[in-house]
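User: quick one, sequence for these tokens?
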């Protein structure tokens, strides 16, 4: 027994392998079911009791050495570039990785832009950090208008033309009128900022899409038609719109647009608070003062503008009752939009 153990230890110490298959053969030869080390363990049963302790220890050493050697040979081959065996198993299943999904606000923004894209509107963008002129002045806000108030606007600097975070994407209208050739037909998506307490219905950061069309002979009928087509594309063919007179400094006349409630079909439910209508945007004919501020002659050109909140459209479309879901990014919420293209 001792001789056999010594002979095997000697053999193990001298083992070499060129290929992983050879290592596997060695493993089978030594510690496989009929391997020589395994065999010695069987012989061990007939060792006299007083020698069991000694041989038991020797056998354990042998077994450990065999296992170490096999592992050593395998590792050496796996790590060596010269090995012509693949260093990993191609047949193993690949690592699974989870795909992200698009955020519902992005989905909604893209849908709005693509609908207007079909109507021929180009996408225009502008800075989030703006000056007073582009957010208020050029849009016909009188100097003392409450929207300029510190309560609403995050100011970055004070002075003649303070720097601030834009409170609406209407500022991109002004930047576009300054630099684009007429006619202009654009939609302007972007983030806006208002100093509001965060609640289910309000947030200090949200998203808007502004629209602007300026050409010769643009009328209120054109505005109404554009918005009706948009509402049908966004909320379904059966959707109706209505316009309520309103006021914005940059449009005259101005209106607020409601769509027929897509939950109850206009009969009245708790989503539309029994009215059958849901407010989706503000709009109007571009005020001549706004055209003048950007050096466009109001006697030659007219236009319409509209502005909507992306979160609001998304809430109506998917009946999300709390705006904060869009900002918390709980994956369970986001996953609900996995199947929405
Ligand atoms: N800028 C407005 C707001 O933030 C939305 C708006 C209303 C934009 C009417 C327009 C418009 O272009 O014509 O509440």
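Assistant:
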């Amino acid at each position: 027994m001792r001789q056999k153990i010594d002979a095997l230890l000697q053999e193990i110490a001298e083992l070499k392998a060129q290929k992983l298959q050879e290592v596997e053969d060695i493993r089978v030869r030594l510690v496989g079911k009929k391997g020589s080390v395994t065999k010695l363990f069987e012989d061990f049963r007939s060792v006299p009791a007083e020698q069991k302790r000694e041989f038991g220890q020797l056998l354990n050493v042998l077994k450990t050495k065999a296992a170490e050697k096999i592992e050593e040979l395998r590792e050496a081959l796996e790590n060596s570039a010269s090995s012509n065996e693949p260093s990993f198993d191609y047949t193993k299943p690949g690592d699974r990785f989870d795909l992200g999904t698009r955020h519902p606000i992005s989905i909604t923004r893209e849908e709005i832009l693509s609908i207007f894209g079909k109507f021929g509107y180009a996408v225009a963008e502008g800075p989030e950090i703006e000056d007073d002129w582009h957010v208020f002045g050029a849009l016909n806000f009188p100097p003392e208008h409450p929207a300029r108030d510190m309560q609403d606007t995050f100011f970055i600097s004070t002075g003649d033309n303070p720097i601030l975070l834009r409170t609406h994407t209407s500022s991109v209208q002004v930047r576009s009128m300054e630099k684009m050739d007429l006619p202009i037909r654009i939609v302007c998506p972007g983030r806006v900022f208002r100093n509001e307490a965060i609640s289910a219905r309000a947030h200090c950061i949200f998203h808007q899409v502004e629209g602007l069309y300026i050409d010769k002979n643009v009328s209120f009928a054109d505005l109404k038609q554009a918005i009706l087509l948009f509402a049908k594309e966004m909320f379904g063919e059966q959707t109706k719109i209505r316009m309520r007179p309103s006021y914005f400094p940059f449009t005259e006349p101005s209106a607020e647009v409601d769509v027929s409630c897509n939950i109850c079909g206009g009969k009245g439910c708790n989503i539309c608070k029994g009215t059958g209508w849901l407010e989706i945007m503000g709009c109007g004919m571009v005020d001549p003062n706004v055209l003048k501020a950007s050096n466009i002659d109001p006697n030659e050109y007219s236009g319409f503008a509209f502005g909507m909140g992306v979160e609001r459209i998304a809430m109506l479309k998917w009946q999300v009752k709390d705006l904060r879901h869009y900002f918390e990014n709980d994956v369970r919420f986001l996953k609900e939009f996995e199947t929405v293209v």
